[in-house]
Design the sequence.
């Protein structure tokens, strides 16, 4: 499994400069699952100037982008809201409707 931790990438490259690293996930390595860990990260807080307990919408945005990119694993705190966002994205993008 390839794990992409947004905070680690952001610390290494500067928080907005991590975007190319996230964009690289749009073409995940063949045969290896990718997991995105962006939930409540300080990077999200810096962009929106919010404390950790107010970063749900930012986390939902990263989950939606991950689902759009075909990333099937995300590590999150607010599971129910993120599952709903991912399911809706899959329904829109892939026609994956139950």
Sequence:
């Amino acid at each position: 499994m390839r794990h992409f931790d947004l905070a680690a990438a952001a610390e290494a490259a500067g928080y907005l400069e991590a975007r190319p690293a996230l964009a690289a996930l749009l073409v995940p390595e063949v045969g290896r699952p990718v997991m995105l860990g962006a939930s409540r990260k300080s990077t999200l807080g810096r962009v929106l100037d919010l404390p950790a307990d107010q970063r749900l919408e930012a986390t939902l945005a990263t989950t939606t982008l991950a689902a759009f990119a075909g990333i099937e694993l995300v590590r999150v705190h607010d599971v129910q809201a993120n599952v709903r966002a991912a399911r809706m994205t899959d329904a829109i993008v892939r026609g994956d409707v139950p």
